[in-house]
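Technical appendix A lists one of the benchmark inputs used to test multi-chain prediction within the project. The record comprises three sequence entries:
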Amino acid sequence: MKNLEDRLAIHDLFVRYATALDDGEVETVVACFTSDAVLESPAIGGIQGKGAIRAFAERFAAWREAGTQFRHLITSLAVDIDAGGERARATAYLLVLISKDNAHRTLPPGRYECELAKQRDGTWRFRRRVVFHDHDYTLDGP
Amino acid sequence: MKNLEDRLAIHDLFVRYATALDDGEVETVVACFTSDAVLESPAIGGIQGKGAIRAFAERFAAWREAGTQFRHLITSLAVDIDAGGERARATAYLLVLISKDNAHRTLPPGRYECELAKQRDGTWRFRRRVVFHDHDYTLDGP
Amino acid sequence: MKNLEDRLAIHDLFVRYATALDDGEVETVVACFTSDAVLESPAIGGIQGKGAIRAFAERFAAWREAGTQFRHLITSLAVDIDAGGERARATAYLLVLISKDNAHRTLPPGRYECELAKQRDGTWRFRRRVVFHDHDYTLDGP
């Protein structure tokens, strides 16, 4: 099947990103992105580059250290690989659950819109990862 | 692997159906079904055919226009393709989240039971899509 | 793709396990495990072997008979197959929803850590399945 390996690699990238973010594995998160990648979300606004992405992941790692456990649940992944095989777009649904003080809550459901690039070593990375939530929220809870 | 392309195509059909329904893309929803397909659910009873399915999708599109965002989360897809390769059955879990007025709620969890048919052009469509929810609910909320 | 059939078979094992547990299909649950498999969870402690696993599945079947419907939603599956191709580790996120008396609730989100073994007939089974939840809970509700 055309692009099957790429499809599975992009699926695995989403899983690796979400679980590393939740587990506080900062460098694994950083390695999911190209060096000039852009992240946008209502919680963080827009950031770009390795330093900003590392700081973003460190914030989650610090929350985890302090006892707040995030779970980024990703479903309904759809992948569209360009004819050239070097660029892709992917969308997915996102449901974030947060556990703290022996209770849990859900953030408003949302979705990812992502642009990806295949690297020279054959791996895929996010070039741009935008998250939308279906209503407003604040993260001051964690 | 036997039927691998069919398996992935059926996965993609579920994702396309759910995201199009949530996004208010009426014609994309209609194109997920055969012309004489049957839909059954506790919210709509049983309907059949393109006109009824279009009206079903238009109801979701209108809710979305009015500010109610559905998210049909699909997990645990299991696909069983007939020996002939032209018919399949598929089951999946369904969790629907609804955002409105800056809050969200979940419908009772449930599952899909679907029958599918491969078309002459090689694409798969739903012939019958039945949804079950684990307890009663009403949609008058949206 | 290397190990593609194994990857899909392990995905299907997770789906079969979760849906059989929820559907009260005791023998299907038992057949997901090797004869000396270990299960660990905060709700059950640690158990080992077919008899204990059957009793575990029967407890869910009895709850279902009594009107409590579980849904084990599994997402973010990551599979790591050993070089030899006969052993694997897999992790996944778990979100359990429980419907009873016309209402539903979620257990604290969690994750599976699993060890798997390929059998002589080519099928995969769980050797060890450990579940972690992000905060404490009791099952006396169902």
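The radius of gyration of chain B is 15 Å. Chain B is about 30% helix and 45% strand. Comparable benchmark entries are summarised in Table A2.
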